[in-house]
Structure formats: structure tokens, C-alpha cells
Design goal:
By secondary structure, this protein is α/β, with parallel strands linked by helices. 46% of the residues lie in helices and 12% in strands. Helix 6 (159-178) runs parallel beside helix 7 and helix 10 packs parallel to helix 11. It binds D-xylulose and cobalt (II) ion (CO).
Length: 435
């Protein structure tokens, strides 16, 4: 088997003074930070779709990368792509990967053909995983590219499309289980609508609730112990998507009684598109006990679409990793690079630059975030800000011991509350001491 990345890797930790663009300057897998190794904190995953499948196309032109396995959509080419994938994962030193069914194998003309192709491919994937020790962070079914899904999958007005999607998810969930995946992701690609003139929102939401309940039921039936994750995104490809953001998904899960069964896979650029910071989405998900895993990338502050670039701002990532540490980490989730190189980055080595730089950004951010927590100023400041709720009338109001009338009567004769500074500038300056 010939190498696709000759002369590259394995990528090693070389320390902050290294000038080698193909070495880690901060990501040192075995280094212990805040009680865990960096490897355990991140559980980095390479995504199959952008790194192995995307040919460098955009809506104005075809692929620019010209990779041999992209010449034909056959099982043989998918097997050639698998060789390249595992060469990349191992040379990079990524412990995990993620895939959609269509990324790893052609699904063919019928559901049955897709099942049998995926079964065959799962044998090959299992062999590669055993040989290399690379593990599966999550699998997912692509329920948005094929024209049958033009009006959604679970939320399609046609029940036959719902059934087809169910058949696809059943198969990929079982393959994920068989490959030891620690999560299964549902991104609602076209679960939304373009115009209300042809859409019944309430009906579509009930369909989606039913669909996800079926997935959860099947997970238990087959003994899959991984987590089912929904990945929020506000728009693109549809104008309005039901899984808009962490808050919308939290409400949806509660309505359909799924809040104990499903968590969130939060993605950076989806947060940006929803008008939030990534750390807001993380903190909100964590506050609801729903933080599961993350998709790592960045958007572009000027472009309003999903550019899926590799992250490169340590300052931004420090605030995100801070929230993840405060939430107690991601458990069996991980950091999946749902990011793609630019269309002009046509050399195979560019794939390494994207991932190596991003892993280093995350590692630097982890060091800074751990130092911020160790310093304790934020915790102390915030605890002090809410201190009134821990005693006296504050504690009684929160515990439900006082009625609205009791509270009003006490407030009527109390001294007027004194405004207190939020100290935002002081706190922002403090972050910069650690970045
Ligand atoms: C799309 C997106 C997907 C999901 C998996 O914006 O993020 O790649 O992560 O379907
Ligand atoms: Co994603």
C-alpha cells in the first residue's frame, strides 16, 4: 500500500520554541493539566467528510484537490479512501474519527444496497481500528444530501421519506455500536423549512420528536451505551431550522420527554450563525445538563455562512475551554474537527497544517483556562455576586418558602437596593493575563 502523505509524520510534540510547522508546540498528549492528560481532555477527532471527502468545490466551481479516490464513487475507491484516512489519523496522532454513512461508502440505489455496503465497509473499518488503535467518537447518517431529503428527513411531509431516514439511521446506529463509537449524532440538516406557505410547524416538530424517540428506543434495544447527540444549527441549508441553538433544543427535548436521553453536540460556527458566542452555547447547554460533545471550527466575522475554518484564536478558545472545564469536561464526548482547509490549499500537507495548528490552539487555550481556574478570581468574583441568595431572604425566596405577597411586604420597607459594578473591563483584562 503506497503512502498518500510520504515524508510526513508522525507529528510529535517539540515544545513552544520549535519552528517546525509539522510539530506540536503545545499539544503534548501525555502532559497532565487540571488532573487529566491533554489527550483525555480533548479526545480529538478528525472528521471524514471535510478531510477525506470534500474535493475543494464551491458553488461557483468544481473540486480543486484531485485525489485519486475521488475519481469514482465505488466501493473500491471508498476502500482506497479508508487507507488514506487511517494513514492521516495515525500520522497526525488523532485518537478518534467521526463519519457519515455516505462518507465511508456509496449507499447505492436502495436502502438494502446501502445496508449491505455499509456492513461490508464496517468490517474493513473495524480491521483498521484494531490495527491502529484509532477509535470512533461518533457516527451519523447523512439525511440531507440526497434529493429525497429536499423537504427534510424526519420532518418531511411524506411519511415514506421519514421511513427511509429511519432505515438509514437504524443501520448507522448499529454500525456505530459495532465499532465501539461513544456517541451517535443527529444533525437536522434540512429539518426546518423555507416558507410557511407550505409548512405545518407543529406537525413537523411532532414528527421530529417521534423520530428521535424511535432512535433512543432502538439504542436501548441494541444495548448501545453511547450518547445520542443533537447538533444545533439555526439555518443553512434551510432558512429556518428547528434545532436553532442550545436553548431551542433544550425546550424541544423537554416537550418530547427526551431530556434525560439526548445531549448536545455544540459547534462553534453554528453558535456564530445563531448570533451567540460559542461559550454562551456551551454554558447554556451545561446549565441544562446537556453538554455532550463539540464540533471545532470557526466562522468568518464578515461572511454569514458556514465557512467551517480551522480555529486559530487562543483568546477565543480560552473562553470556550474555560466553560468546558467548569462543566467538568465532555465525558465521553470529544473535540471533533468539523473544519475544512480553504479551496486554494490544494496540497495534502495543508490538511496537516490545519489540524496541527488547531490542536495547538486548543492546547494553549487549555493551559490558559486551567490557569484562570487555578487563579480563582472569576469564581470568587461570581460567587460574591450571588452571595445574597445563599442566606436569609434570598435563600428563602429561592427555596419557595415565601409567597409573592410575603416578598412584596418585606421589600416595601427594606432599604433601596444599591447598584454594584459588574467590573467587566477588569475581568476582561484578567483573561489577557493568562492567554
Ligand atoms: C453541518 C455540520 C455537519 C454535522 C454532521 O453544518 O456541522 O457536518 O456535524 O452531520
Ligand atoms: Co458539525
Amino acid at each position: 500500500m503506497s503512502e498518500f502523505f510520504p515524508g510526513i509524520g508522525p507529528i510529535q510534540y517539540a515544545g513552544p520554541d520549535s519552528r517546525n510547522p509539522l510539530a506540536f508546540r503545545y499539544y503534548d498528549p501525555k502532559r497532565v493539566v487540571a488532573g487529566k492528560t491533554m489527550e483525555e481532555h480533548f479526545r480529538f477527532a478528525v472528521c471524514y467528510w471535510h478531510t477525506l471527502c470534500w474535493p475543494g468545490s464551491d458553488m461557483f466551481g468544481p473540486g480543486t484537490f484531485h485525489r485519486h479516490w475521488q475519481a469514482a464513487d465505488t466501493f473500491e475507491m471508498a476502500a482506497a479512501k479508508l487507507d488514506v484516512a487511517f494513514e492521516f489519523f495515525t500520522k497526525l496522532g488523532a485518537p478518534f474519527f467521526c463519519f457519515h454513512d455516505v462518507d465511508v461508502v456509496p449507499l447505492g440505489e436502495t436502502l438494502r444496497e446501502g445496508w449491505s455496503n455499509l456492513d461490508r465497509m464496517a468490517d474493513l473499518i473495524a480491521g483498521k481500528m484494531q490495527q491502529t488503535g484509532v477509535k470512533l467518537l461518533w457516527g451519523t447518517a447523512n439525511l440531507f444530501s440526497h434529493p429525497r431529503y429536499l423537504a427534510g428527513a424526519a420532518t418531511n411531509p411524506d411519511p415514506a421519506v421519514f421511513a427511509y431516514a429511519a432505515g438509514q439511521v437504524k443501520q448507522v446506529l448499529e454500525a456505530t455500536h459495532r465499532l465501539g463509537g461513544t456517541n451517535y449524532v443527529l444533525w437536522g440538516g434540512r429539518e426546518g423549512y423555507d416558507t410557511l406557505l407550505n409548512t405545518n410547524i407543529g406537525h413537523e416538530l411532532d414528527q421530529l420528536g417521534r423520530f428521535i424517540s424511535l432512535v433512543v428506543e432502538h439504542k436501548h434495544k441494541i444495548g448501545f451505551t453511547g450518547t445520542i447527540l443533537i447538533e444545533p444549527k439555526p439555518c443553512e441549508p434551510t432558512k429556518h431550522q428547528y434545532d436553532y441553538d442550545s436553548a431551542a433544543v433544550a425546550g424541544f427535548l423537554r416537550k418530547y420527554g427526551l431530556e434525560k436521553e439526548v445531549k448536545l453536540n455544540v459547534e462553534v460556527n453554528h453558535a456564530t450563525l445563531a448570533g451567540h458566542t460559542f461559550e454562551h452555547e456551551l454554558a447554556f447547554a451545561a446549565s441544562q445538563g446537556l453538554l455532550g460533545s463539540i464540533d471545532v471550527n470557526r466562522g468568518d466575522p464578515q461572511n454569514g455562512w458556514d465557512t467551517d475554518q480551522f480555529p486559530n484564536s487562543v483568546a477565543d478558545w480560552t473562553l470556550a475551554v474555560y466553560q468546558i472545564l467548569k462543566a467538568g469536561g465532555l465525558g465521553n464526548g470529544g473535540f471533533n474537527f468539523d473544519a475544512k482547509i480553504r479551496r486554494q490549499s490544494i496540497d495534502p500537507v495543508d490538511l496537516f497544517h490545519g489540524h496541527v495548528g488547531a490542536m495547538d490552539v486548543c492546547a494553549r487555550a487549555l493551559l490558559a483556562a486551567a490557569a484562570l481556574i487555578e487563579d480563582g478570581t472569576f469564581d470568587a468574583f461570581t460567587a460574591n455576586r450571588y452571595a445574597g441568595w445563599g442566606k436569609g431572604a434570598g435563600a428563602d425566596m429561592l427555596a419557595g418558602k415565601l409567597s409573592l405577597a410575603d416578598i412584596a411586604a418585606a421589600a416595601a420597607d427594606a432599604p433601596a437596593p444599591t447598584p454594584v459594578s459588574g467590573r467587566q473591563e477588569y475581568l476582561e483584562n484578567l483573561v489577557n493575563r493568562f492567554v
